[in-house]
Amino acid sequence: MKAITNISIFLLIFVASKKILADTHYVSKTGANVPPFTNWTNAANVIQDAVDIAVSNDIVLVNDGVYDTGGAVTPGYSCSNRVVITNDITVKSLNGPEKTTILGKGPLGSNAVRGVYMSAGILDGFTVSNGHTRTSDNYAYDRKGGGVNMYGGNGVVTNCTISGNSAGEEGGGTCYGTVNNCIIWGNSATISNNYYRSTILYSCTAPLPGGPGNISANPKFLSASDFHLQASSPCIDAGTNLPYVYTTTDLDGNPRLLGDRVDMGAYEYIPEPGVLWIMTAFGALLCKRKT
Predict the structure, then answer these.
(1) Contacts with 158 (C-beta within 8 Å, 6 or more apart), sequence order
(2) Do the domain assignments include residue 55?
(3) Inside any domain, residue 49
(4) For residues 150 and 140, what is the distance between their CA atoms, to the nearest angstrom?
(5) 29 lies in a domain?
(6) Which one in 30, 129, 204, 282 has a CA-CA gap of 20 to 30 Å to 38?
(7) 197 phi and psi, to 5 degrees?
(8) 177 is in which domain, residue-wise?
(9) 215-224: long-range pairs with CB below 8 Å, 24+
(10) Could you give the CA distance from residue 94 to residue 289 in angstroms, rounded to a whole number?
(11) pLDDT in tens, 114-148
């Protein structure tokens, strides 16, 4: 009887452990597209196929490329999206947004494709570009949030840069959700070009939203397609130092915090090496004089 009891306990722990362990599902433009996509050889060719097979706590790991095919309709509604995330999974790029793009499709209307709809989960390390929405059907789910729509969820779009998207109604950049330490700039919509009913904190966007630390000045990107900051950007040292900034990196892999305060947007501004050396030497000289 004692042996049987021990075996029963072992089986119970084993079953519980299987439920806790997460799987990784791979996505690559050159994969063989064999479900359940559990290695690079058999990787899915489109992100949504791997997302559809993932369950809570799983990871979808995406290789380099521009993902401009596949997708899903917003559940219960009409707008197509390149990626739809509705459960607690992590969708993460392998090498960051410089190498990995989720590309929507225009123009606005019945054939439009939004970048991302998500009501749960984590989206980490992507450029989301050229997202568009429908101009008819449901007001909140089909016509808002050209880049990322989080209506019906509790998403938090942190240290993100959202630019170059369009919506048929409100919120060309974001719709609902919370953004912190972000830049939402250069998006378009019939009403509310950059954001709609989003909670905006320590971020750069226009028009100036209520909330602490927000600014509405031009963020001064390096170019229309390069979202690194110029030296004169008002977004430098303008964010708020939440706990994560001390232990994480930006999307180039550089320390998230350089200086007294974190920058807004996806990239921390890195001074030119000569300028950094002069600042360091000057600081050392001051310390020497004080001693």
Answers:
(1) 179, 180, 181, 182, 242, 244
(2) no
(3) no
(4) 10
(5) no
(6) 129
(7) 50, 35
(8) 64-290
(9) 215/264, 218/185, 219/183, 219/185, 219/264, 219/265, 221/163, 221/185, 224/164, 224/186
(10) 47
(11) 999 999 888 887 888 899 999 999 988 999 888 88
**What is the predicted pLDDT for the residue at 123?**
86
Residue 23 lies in a domain: no
> Backbone dihedral region of 181: left (phi > 0), alpha (psi from -120 to 50 degrees) or beta?
left
Number of domains in the chain: 1
Average pLDDT value for residue range 206-212 = 95
